[in-house]
């Protein structure tokens, strides 16, 4: 092979090409073999982007690890006041300032204070933060940080612990705002959740939920710690780290909140007192067991998502601005919100004890008319209007008591013990289905469940989980009444008998998390036929 | 033949512009094929698949394929992701879904019988054809074994019998076309115990899939895979988990495979027809210029030559004339000279005679002989 040395032009080019090829090959190999670093998960990342208020940022926002700094500061036997100025209202949660006057001052404070401290820390030999521009203002894709910050909910258990710790002094946390006097004051009987007023963003002088909770919670916790009393966390991770959140003590039997709430109530369809004429033609009233429902959720906010008032105060019948134009009917029946009655109830169907049957039952919107009767019972609003409040409460109580509740199904001796499925004996022997065992187990699952009891209005309702699309009956139809053995293309949504059996049994097992029998273990249900 | 750079660039841009004009009109078509009316398909409901592999067993039996290494009731083969290969027109794969412990989702993979198949488009011997009934079938008697179809298929389905070097063939699911002719169901559909596969008219299956998704919105992802992918396929899928987690590509787009190359291929006849004419024309035009230049040059040359000749002949004539004149003058001069000499001689002779005569009697006058 004629080989031109690298002295000639074409020789040099080919040498360079070969070298480049080798470099690229090795480079890609090296890159491929280096495993990608797992991003660090932290709950204390604060993105410093305060200067956004003054226009577009010139450099990327700075990811600031707050807990890392509090730990470092604590090691130096210092506290929050190293960075946060104390005002008469408590600590200012901005860095070394109380307010942002202009861009230049704010930027200067950050640069001067941060870098000075980092420098002095480094000089004294300790591990310190960055001082170069690009080490703080890091590009997003070069950061190996992932936030696993979790919001913390003041649920009923945590609220009760605070109530107990403060001797039921509601005024310590709950306040209202007097716009004319421009002052906060305590209004007894009007206590509500913080989020009812303090939203995601600060609006004028109504601060954001984030600022409000930090100001309220951390100030109090710090005070108590200064008095050597037990208190909640004062650093990010104590509240917002998922692992630490799990460790927060949960009170199991929370005593009922004392806010003069009703035990039973007739759900109102009008906010203002109305004459009977105004209430003509309205749906039958719904008696509501408020006391029982307080136990079903771990926070009032699930239903009272914007105010501790009756739903109709915002969600009027016709829809109004306060309720985001969501009508009362919508608010009660919408399927995908937990605050809605029907929405929450349909969520309950996803529980493992219920899902076996309910996963295959399509959500029907609107629901069949006889389901309405479970809630809408009794008098129409027009007839209730003239009655006074005590009378209405009494009627509500009676209506709730008189609800039919089916706590199971038919008597045990009426349920066939074993059912032999021998309609398709071909490759496999007949199936001996342990019918009674299954039915009794399902009945056991719903026995203590009041929701199931009210909605399963008939002992035969439970049977309809498998004996579907047929009226409730002590002797419901077998599967082969409707499912044939020849595939009819036009009835593509009605499986043939084999598939009907398999789908019904397997989907129920899967939904309820039943591992045995495994769907693919044919002989677990039917023995293989040797001479077919 | 060496052409100048300018000329070359000019020709290329002319050719390119001509091609571009043609291609734009090709791609601006609003026609799209929605399948032959009444063509059949299969709907695969992935939420119903339990991974029992009975479809694989049935396919093997119905198509008389060689027995597999591991029997079909051996479910440990699902530990690895498999693809279709020479002895398997279809495979079932198991997928663990990230973030859900102990979850296992199964799906069946086979030829999707596209409405506008890439394999048929790319095969230059027409071994694949899309039948009006729905299946895409393969004719092994014309296959040359180039395996373009394997490269072209976006779902990587066609397999090849590499072990059979003398009579190799491409293998893929046929939707049991012979069985369909007889009014039977495809083998896999018939054998599925949970009816995860439903056979029917493609439009009906799409409606059925939509109904299922609407009835159980929490159970299904709101997408029918194959409704529009690669221009639509006859094998449709609905799933409860994202399709990417099942190894089903979501980046294929809705353009049918033939349309991706139709523009370039459609330009070929136009190129073949137009370029020669165009380039010849340009060549001719550029040559003509030279030809005219040559002609002009020739004319100029001949004119110059003629002129030069004229001048030359004029000069010659003048020179001749001059020579003639000079000659005449010379002759006359000579004559004059001779005459003068003769006269002189005569005079001298006369003088001499006179002398002599004086001395002698007079001599007779003789004619001078011209010397």
What would your notes on this structure say?
The complex is a heterodimer of chains A (532) and B (371). In chain A, a hairpin with a 2-residue loop joins strand 4 and strand 5. In chain A, strands 1-6 form a two-stranded parallel sheet. Chain A is built from 18 helices and twelve strands. Chain A starts with 8 loop residues before the first helix and ends in a 21-residue tail after the last helix. The longest helix of chain A is centred in the N-terminal third of the chain and has 25 residues. In chain A, helix 12 packs antiparallel against helix 18. Helices cover 35% and strands 7% of the residues of chain A. Chain B has a domain of 223 residues: Alpha-Beta Plaits, CATH 3.30.70. Chain B is 46% helix and 9% strand. Chain B contains eight helices and nine strands. Chain B has a three-stranded mixed beta sheet with strand order 8-1-9. A two-stranded antiparallel sheet of chain B has the order 2-3. The longest helix of chain B has 103 residues. The C terminus of chain B is likely disordered. At the A-B interface, helix 18 of A face strand 8 and helix 7 of B.
Would you report the number of β strands of chain A? Answer: 12
Sheet with most strands of chain B? 3 strands, mixed
Weakly predicted, low-confidence segments of chain A: none
* Net shape of chain A: extended
CATH architecture of the largest domain in chain A: Alpha-Beta Complex
Report the β-strand fraction of chain B as a percent range: 5-15%
Text of the CATH class of one domain in chain B: Alpha Beta
Looking across the biggest beta sheet of chain B, what order are the strands in?
A: 8-1-9
Shape assignment of chain B: rod-shaped
